[in-house]
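A brief tutorial aside. Many learners find it easier to grasp structure tokens once they have seen a single protein encoded end to end. The record that follows does exactly this for LysR family transcriptional regulator. Read the sequence first, then the structure, and try to relate runs of similar tokens to stretches of the chain.
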Amino acid sequence: MTSEHRARPPLANLETVCLVARHGSFTAAAEASGLTHGAISRRVGAVENWLGCALFERHGRGVSLTCDGQRFLGRIEHAFDVIDAAADQWHQSRKVPAVRLSVVPSFAKLWLLERLQSLQSGQPYIDIQVATEHRNADVGAGEVDIALRYGRGGWASVDAEPLMRETLYPIASPEIAQRLKGASASELLTMPLLHDSDLTGWRAWCGAQGVSLRPRARDRRFEDYTVVLAAAEAGLGIALARAPLAQDWIARSRLVRLSDVEVECPLRYHIVTAKRERRPEVLEVIARLHASART
């Protein structure tokens, strides 16, 4: 069984009722809305006729809500809140897609930030929100959408794919380079070695020349690779250039290459995501990262 409903008044008329209640007079509502006093009066009258009761008491100073008007206005404002919430939800679903990316500060400074605009651009535009942190963000738990991790790969409970290879060669300040340029691996070991997380890179470079490397007290470890490069430029020891990551930094610095020997690093940057990641915006950012690394 169905029932017929009276035609509802236009939303504009209901909004006008709220506007009059907020401003306390037809004249003020007219000024705020750009309508005439007569148009405001006609809209309010149409709603009152539809309801069959008066919403406002008219007096010399303006208008005030009747008891019926107060109850009706409360319901109408609640209905407008529901409409606004639905509109916001729809807008959120259609806004620019965003992807959260976790990366260590050195990679952000040396490679990512200068490419960020081009990584975001294209169709569709994607808002890449960068979190710089030394810890490994938990992509599986949804802390971020993509993490760029440095290592050998093979991490549990995530998907990982290599982003770029790196090659290594020693660099130092001009003062040190003047004494050691072209020196053998054994001769370089007379100086403090500078490194970040561990000696993996140095072991690979020395091992390629038949030299075994053990941890030494005079070597210096820094948490961030850009600090390693700054320490080398300050003459605190010898660092390894990681190409292509550090190429632009080295070109702008005083650092000098010490040897023609260049070896591939056992470690590399990987793109890490949750298992079976399928969101289009995440896959698109991954494709853009690969394209940028290839160039």
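Self-check: The CA atoms of residues 20 and 28 lie 8 Å apart. If you spotted this yourself, you are ready for the next section.
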